[in-house]
Hints:
The complex is a heterodimer. Chain A is an all-alpha fold. Helices cover 79% and strands 0% of the residues of chain A. Chain A contains 15 helices and no strands. The radius of gyration of chain A is 20 Å and the shape is globular. Chain B folds into two domains: 129 residues, Rossmann fold; 134 residues, Rossmann fold, CATH 3.40.50.1980. In chain B, helix 7 packs parallel to helix 13. At the A-B interface, helix 2, helix 4, helix 9 and helix 14 of A face helix 1, helix 4 and helix 5 of B. Chain A: It is a multi-pass membrane protein. Chain A: This is Iron complex transport system permease protein.
Amino acid sequence: MNFKNTLTKNYKSFLFFLILLIVVIGLFSLVTGYLSISLSDIWATMIGKGTKRNQLLLIEFRLPRLLVAVLAGASLGVAGTLFQGITQNELADPGIIGINSGAGLAVVVFLTIRSSQINSSSLINVISLPFAAFAGGLIAAFSIYVIAWKKGITPIRMVLVGIGVNAGFGALLTMLQLRMDESDFNQVAIWLSGSIWNAHWPAVFSLLPWVIFLIPISIYKSRILNILQLGDQMAVGLGVSIELERVKMIAIGVALAGASVSVAGGISFLGLGAPHIARKLVGNKHERLLPVAACIGALVLLISDSISRNLLAPSEVPVGLVVSVLGAPYFLYLLVNSES
Amino acid sequence: MKKILSGSVLLVLGLTLSACGSNQSDSSETSLEETTENSASKVMTDKLGNEVEIPDNPEKVLASYLEDYLVALDVIPVAQWSVYDGESIQEYLQDELVGVPLIPHDLPYESVLEYEPDLMIVRDAIEPDMYDQYAQITPTYVLNSSPTEWRETLTEIGEVLGKEEKAKSVLDSYEKKAEEKASELAKVADGESAAAIWMVNNSLFVVHPKRSSGAVLYEDLGLAVPEVVSELSSDADWAAISLEELAKMDVDHLFFVNSDGPNAEMFEDRLWQNIPAVQNEQVYEFGPETSWLYYGPIASEQVMDDVVESITNSVQ
């Protein structure tokens, strides 16, 4: 564990390195794609001297995608860390315990209602999506809490009930999908498998405020999360009102996961994997864990998006599938390793 | 703790700044568009309610899956519809479209941008979000006419492209030809019935009597609609039909579009072999590369030729 100690000691430079890595890979992702563009063209476009084609390509198509990948990845990383902290279970993930499918269900219902009233302003629609997702996620979280409640909540019960709730919402979603016509069905199916391919600026702006407010708040709550790790009794002994704090933290996690689901669809494994990797790197102290998990989440989604754009260019693989393909082996590796 | 906070705030700030930066260039881009705008253009309202500014005499037109209409109006598009990297294209138009590059059917932004069209025409199936992105590349017009009405579609595309006259003459000569062919058919096959069946993945489908090649058979050429066909027709262009129902169908001429090739399992089936039209050798087979599954003036005319040729040959 020397490596971990070194990283923990030089934590600030490590975080800086991660952010730098995001910037470098982000640049790389801007340059690559079906249409080629050189670094000097990018520079010319950034200072406003590019051709119209390059402006569209970079600023309207690739940049918003890149930002959505970074923002959604960071929120999923943080949401996952929060849920794992609250449930004290390293397998908890907003995707596994049903928060994402609750949010997804709400978004699909919202979209179905919306499509019957044509011609409402696009920006308002996009910005209201995260709220619908938040509401759906809250309903899921509330159901979990109510069902798992037995004179208080044990974390493990919460995860198990969450898996059940996830299956329930998944079934409702399938039911809804089967009543759709073919093109809506396909659209929802692609969206649910995690897709940011038509990410545009309204999507970035609808996600940004959630990330700006909620990630710093989560980091501010690190102390409470650290205390919760000591177990419920210890936490109560240290003067933390655990139920209240848990509810607050769940709300933050649901909001982050919901916002990300509303623009990027159901991206699984990221909420599970990012905190894991982060924990391996900098340990279990949340003031270090949360920012690193955010960066790792952003990095993984960014890299996956680059792969999904370039693998079958100009057509696309849903980014959620790429994340799953990358994430599933890691998950298995974790399981095998934890056995030994 | 504070340093971590300020670190994450910096990260967020950086993101916001880059977003702002792009906004500025956003506005400069619209002004760029305005200055280069052609003075000659017209405004048309499309299906989504957009007021689309359409340039006069657009040179580079993109209208994926509407190539039939373009070709009929003597317009060669900058790129043509394709599925799976060109595995499937509109074969029946390739005499005119040979050498025209392919574009994936889902129209990725970067592919559209690659061809830098002056004008894009699409059907309604795109999302509003995608429309906004396309509209930034080029004026994008969503057709008002229904996909099942090729005559209306032709007229509308003619209007958009400023080729109303040409559209009208294409329609007129089509109607004239249809009238001639119908009377030609009436001489050899008066009151006889016909149906078009499509076999794909070992399943059978029968054409809707008012859609696609069905409209040509019954409305343009005056062949009779078998009872089973009018009973089956749902809202789909091609309705599923079982082999049993097909065997019961009382039909004089069977036009058979075979997407499964000559060794299809269906041909082994006793039921198939007992279909009256099969026994009388009044089944006319066509490959999926023919125009039977499509819509448009060229597709319809080719179907019309196929029908008249098959029936007159079988009578002789």
